[in-house]
Automatic annotation (TrEMBL):
It comes from Dactylosporangium sucinum. It comes from the Bacteria. This is Pentapeptide repeat-containing protein. The lineage of its organism: Bacteria, Bacillati, Actinomycetota, Actinomycetes, Micromonosporales.
Amino acid sequence: MDLVTLIEQADADPARRQPVADAVCAVGPEALRLLTDRLRAGWDGISVDLAGKTLVDADFSGCRLAGATFADTRLHGTTRFDGATFDETVTFQRALFTGDATFAGARFAADAAFGRTRFRGRADFTGARFGGMAWFGRGAETWWDDDEAWDTVEELDPAPWDEPNEADPDWPVAVLVEDYQDWEEGGDGARFTGDVTFRDAAFAGPAWFYNARFGAAATFAGARFAGRFHLDHPTADLTGAHWTGNVEDGESGWPLGWTVPPSGGDVVPDAGVPSFAGPSGLAALSQLGDDRPDLRQRIVTTLCALLRVPVVSDVRDDAPRRETQRVLADRLRHWPGTSVSLSGAVLVDADFSGCEAEYAEFCGAQFHGTTRFAGAAFKRASFSLDGPLGHATFHGAAVFGTAPPEHAVFLGTVS
């Protein structure tokens, strides 16, 4: 029996709708339009599982779904979820959008997971509503050791990590629940190469962008945050945003240059922090940290965030990146007690010789040119997440003056 006939029968018999939806998802994208037409026309309570599929110009705009799984899905062309409604958990873990993706006005009633999702085009979440956790952090699944999902973990097939200037860090796809103690662990978060907007979006639960990477404009203007929020990206626009002051899930973290009352209120520019665009701004940041030790960690975090910006052109021609590296390394030689978060950063001819830090994270980092660590004194340092997974790659010569770190990949000489 063909799918058209099955769908027509399901129109008359709601009990058949979920099995038919499963059949359509199994067949592939060529039959998807038959299903999405029904999801707009009143087929309620239907979930879709398109994990690992390849979709072209997928259009779920206006669809109402129960749950949805797009983990490891490759979405080419323009993908539309405008006005879509998800009544249960939806996951886009490690999905790849090669073109523009629009979620304007989408409604997520439960958790929405976009861990390590890659958006190569523009991403539009204008007016989206997140009823549960909005997760744009690490991309690994977390399972208990007796979870049956481990039986098929090898079937998970993320899209190749073919990003410019980056070798594949082999980020993990799944870990034991107890492997991570904090939300901050686990390497790279979501990656936005093009412009992304969350203008006027509403987050009823935590909004987690830890280690998310932004390559262009990032707009959160007018957004409403009712739970824990974390964002380091220093050029994000939070004009008119508001936070309720909820700390039930932990403290929130705001980009340097923005401030909000501890009890909640409007997010406003911090008059005590100078603009740090361009070399003069970097010098001003450096001076600010010299004058105000209480801001040094936030300034280091900001410099790290600038170095984690994806690079789509030849990294060797990136003079601002080199200057940011220089300022960071120089301050690490004079500001004891700070920690460095360079997970996934792209660095070129980085010189960390003589630098000090409480903790230095280089998981998944990409070192181009000649990299120097001679005389560096890090109380703790990591160049991978767990064994070889999430490893850093040295594309050129590396100078340590001592034993090199385990599990990092060296493509040049090591001394």
